Amino acid sequence: MNKNILHTVKGVAGCLLMASLAAGCAQDDIDTAPSGGGGMSASSYVSLSFASQQSTPTRSNPTGGEQGDGDETGQDYENEIKSAVAFFYQGSGTDGVNSSGTTPIMAVATFNFNVRSYTEPGNGIDRTYTTTPQQVDLDDGTYNVLVVANPGADWWTGQSLTLADVRNHIQTTAWTASGSDYSDFVMTSAADATLTLNSNPENNPAKATVNVERMAARLDYKAEASYPCTDPAYSGATVEITGAALVNNLTAGSYIIKRVADDVNGTNLSYLGNETADENGAATNYVLDPWTASKNGNLYGTWFMNGSSDPNWWAGYVQPGTSVSDGAETWKRIGYTLENTTAADAAGSDYSTGVVFKATFHPQGVANYQDGATFFALGTHLFASMEDMMTYVYGADFSQFDDKIDACDNWAAVKNFAASLLDNDPSGYKAFLLGQDEAQDLAQVKKSLKWSAYMLSNCGYSASLNETYKVELDQNGIVTRNALQSYGVRTYEDATCYYTWWVRHSNDNNDDAKGIMEYAIVRNNIYKLTVNSIYSLGNDVPGEDENIILDVYVNDWLLLDPETLPM
Questions:
Q1: Predicted local distance difference test score (pLDDT) of residue 50
Q2: How far apart are the first and last CA of the chain?
Q3: Beta-strand runs (E) in 37-140
Q4: CA-to-CA distance for 340 and 255, rounded, in angstroms?
Q5: What is the pLDDT of residues 551-565, one digit of tens each?
Q6: Cα four-point dihedral sign 358, 332, 555, 549
């Protein structure tokens, strides 16, 4: 993997909703579990609000750890909260969520939000949501609270839960998608929260401030209208990025509560812990997903190692993206994905999340070529047609191929002609002729032995010349690219090529090694990919190697801008 000229800054630090999530309506459901020891002698009204903590980056270099590039306000559909569930428990001292897994969940309260008021004074910043307090049957005392917003299916009902049950729950649905529209982003506690109950009446509810973060990560990209191809082998060529798509986007689920550890085996495991970095900004611990220690190809929505070799499949999969604004610039949203981390030495095309960019390549100085049309590559040489490639390889002799077949009056003559061809014939014609069954009636099959007939029947290829070549591919159910690939030919249908980038979460500033969390995806981060430059011609279908240079910035979301919350 090429890491030169990489600028990856990982910015994490609370990115969190400021919306008054005061607890639901009278008709909202409340599930309670025995408090264990004190019975239900008291009940209180509870109000939960969600707070935002903005980071103040101190570094300008790509770094690991919680602090990085700062925050970015979410889109309205990324911020909306329709429901929430709160888990109440009493942890050990200051351990909170890191208390013993056997700690019982003493009550579970669900909130369906009925927005009483919504105000926006006109500056697009201050927004106020107001709900009514909700009653929770718990004894007076101090409780820890974990919250899941937009939780989806109520997996917590009908059972006696422990803290471990909550921490270990694997959430497979972190948002709802309908075409290019997204909603119902699952958000979970990002830090410990507590509240104290003292028989609180409805007009004076107990209050807790809960920091939450989305389980999803988002990837955006930005590209110039055109880039010069800096590879001297393609002098004068330009490249236009036309789309991007995620590969190895993990869809099998994430722990509902973020966890970090010293290694992928969970040494010194901490729930809701911070990502750490050394004095040089390189990550020193891991964020763990359920399969960090042992990945397999069943965990991904689109697994790169199972990627199609058909360029037509990739042409349909990679899309232009949806425009999103960060308030200053417009980007293209590639998509959303779940956390995906691996051991450092396992990072890469096998399991790390990547982005495939689709591009149109505009070569210069290619004979008989019309811009935007299909072209072929043999090494660094480009051709408008396979006819031109064969002329380049064989010179004037290629024009005599049909005549030589016509002159053959027996199979020995055919095989002698085939033997005169190059072993590395780029069309595979030599191998075709040598593989013919000599028991056939030569007179009956001679027409099919001619080069153009072979190309149509065996490679799905034909071409016509009228000032420029018009090429037809994939005829007779044959994928031309696949047929020619084994002979060293790359086929660029409609001048389309692909570039692959393996997403960086943190940079260890060492081009010779894969660092801890260098190639990773972590929840509630926006990975903003700016195409900096393009060196060479991309692949005809996506490949593992990177041949594109990006600037990468990793921002935490900020759910809503800072607000004043009337309670």
A1: 59
A2: 53
A3: 44-50, 71-73, 83-89, 105-112, 117-119, 128-130, 134-136
A4: 11
A5: 887 888 866 443 322
A6: positive
